[in-house]
Fold this protein.
Amino acid sequence: AKLFFSGDQELHAMIRELKTYEKEDSPRSADYFYRQFEYVNWVAISDLEGNLDSIYPADLQKRLEKKNLLKDVQKKYPRKVQLGLPEKTSKADIWILKPLLKDYSLNGYIILGIDFQSLINYNDQPEKLLVLTPSRILWPGRYKTLTGKIKNQNWEKKLEDSVKGNITITNQKFFWFARYIGIDPIVYLMTRP
């Protein structure tokens, strides 16, 4: 548990604060997340069409992939916190999107760009972890040579059936478990003793 606990605890503490944020939140502005959490590379507030109201840091406007910002919003769950995966060239490894409401109607999103390497370094011995989503390796740890075989597992099916399990890849036994960001899983793998 020590291998993943600190980074996961840090991420979920930030998400708890994010869930309480609304656009007209007078005690704190959106840049609070950028200033408070060192693994947050940027923060943007978007309307439902992807037009940006606010961006932190301000120079991000030129570099942000605006056209793809809301592509990962699952239309089935537009009012839930969600995980997004930016293009590989982005300055963030994952996006966390939180819906913003006005008079109980969906009004936009606050989007946080997360540097996953900075987050994973909160953990003891992060090299002993491999972290992924069903479609992307977020952190290979010391298992770079196995990433293709691990990624090719049917993670969608595994996650339908359970939130934890065991797999064997190239004679190495791994224990895996999923933690969720809203409705989206992040899977942690570690070798079994």
About this structure: The beta strands are 40-46, 52-56, 82-84, 94-102, 105-114, 130-133, 136-139, 164-169, 172-181, 184-191. The radius of gyration is 17 Å. The mean pLDDT is 85.
